[in-house]
């Protein structure tokens, strides 16, 4: 297995799966192909092939890669069993790099040394002890993590939650805004600094956006970010 996407409801995992399927040319296996195709189109993702759980067989996907939406439901519908657990091999260093970054508010810089994110959204630090490495919780007020939104800007710079972006929204108009997540749209968006507008982010707008900073660069904008949300 090359990729895995795990997250809570409204965490953006479906969009990420669809984007990965588009990149790799995978067939999307899901509960409702029509609904999933409509959702993909709303994200600006077109040209994917969709197959219902029950229709996945050697005839429909022979020799093709597949991206399965909601693995647990897939097993229950197709095999009549509940998925209790599974194993897979992961390069945690790579996952740590592409999934999130951690900012130390005391040292005022991003850090990468031995700090990991738990499934519950808490940060822990790996420390060496007499009995091997030990995980301890770090000061959650001092360290802040920002998720990678699985999208790079036009220069190839990874985009994270809390980044500032410059975006060309029309031929004669450019905006500056903040990257955040809209639970209403189940999508990452740019929230304009100067208006109440927001614009959906995705591969279709990649060539028109550019990272210009981060909430930690400017205390005034950091305060503004904390008081405004979708």
How would you characterize this protein structure?
This protein is an alpha+beta fold and 230 residues long. The protein folds into three domains: 13-79, no CATH class; 92-137, no CATH class; 149-227, SH3 type barrels. Helix content is 23%, strand content 35%. It is built from six helices and 15 strands. It has helices at residues 13-24, 33-42, 58-61, 71-79, 92-99, 219-227, and strands spanning 27-30, 50-52, 66-68, 100-104, 109-111, 115-117, 123-129, 132-137, 143-152, 158-160, 163-170, 173-182, 187-192, 198-200, 209-214. Strands 14-13-12-11-15 form a five-stranded antiparallel sheet, with no helix packed on it. Strands 5-4-9-10 form a four-stranded antiparallel sheet. A three-stranded parallel sheet has the order 2-1-3, covered by helices on one side. The chain is flat, with a radius of gyration of 20 Å. The two termini are 35 Å apart. Residues 90-98 and 219-230 have low confidence and may be disordered.
């Amino acid at each position: 297995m090359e990729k895995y996407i795990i997250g809570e409801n409204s965490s953006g995992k479906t969009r990420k799966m669809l984007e990965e399927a588009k990149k790799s040319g995978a067939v999307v296996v899901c509960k409702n192909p029509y609904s999933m195709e409509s959702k993909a189109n709303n994200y600006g993702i077109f040209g994917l092939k969709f197959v219902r759980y029950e229709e996945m067989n050697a005839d429909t996907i022979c020799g093709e890669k597949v991206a399965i939406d909601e693995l647990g439901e897939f097993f229950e519908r197709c095999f009549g069993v509940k998925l209790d657990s599974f194993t897979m091999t992961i390069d945690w260093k790579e996952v740590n790099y592409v999934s999130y970054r951690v900012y130390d508010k005391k040292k005022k810089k991003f850090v990468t040394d031995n700090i990991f994110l738990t499934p519950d959204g808490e940060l822990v630090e790996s420390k060496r002890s007499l009995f091997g490495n030990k995980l301890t919780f770090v000061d959650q007020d001092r360290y802040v993590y920002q998720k990678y939104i699985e999208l790079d800007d036009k220069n190839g710079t990874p985009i994270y939650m809390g980044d500032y972006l410059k975006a060309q929204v029309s031929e004669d108009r450019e905006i500056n805004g903040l990257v955040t997540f809209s639970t209403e749209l189940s999508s990452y968006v740019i929230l304009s600094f100067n208006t109440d507008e927001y614009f959906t982010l995705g591969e279709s707008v990649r060539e028109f956006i550019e990272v210009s900073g981060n909430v930690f660069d400017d205390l005034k904008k950091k305060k503004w970010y904390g008081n405004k949300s979708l």
